[in-house]
Amino acid sequence: MDGIVFFRTERHDDIVSFYRDLGATVWLEQPDCTILQAGGFRFGFCDRDSADTEGIVTFVFDDRAGVDELYERLGDRADDEPRFNETYDIYQFFASDPEGRTVEFQTFE
């Protein structure tokens, strides 16, 4: 079974560009929705009058190098430097997309 998470957005083009710049590709283009794919993770943004900004969009990498690479690219949007989280045994950092959605970049250790 596969799945897709959808979000309403007021800034469709900016949001799609942001996630494409992170390495996501367009999986399917619909009249007012774009479904992106990053590895096995599919997520869509639909142009609406309000935006869904709750929750966390999490990208999982194979190792710390992947997390660090995205931190270097997104440093100005990052909440803090990558760190090891002992509670969950992960290396991670958080950032915000152009609409204020929380985006997490992590690797399990």
UniProtKB/TrEMBL annotation:
InterPro entries documented for this protein: Glyas_Bleomycin-R_OHBP_Dase
Gene3D superfamilies: 2,3-Dihydroxybiphenyl 1,2-Dioxygenase, domain 1
Protein name: Glyoxalase
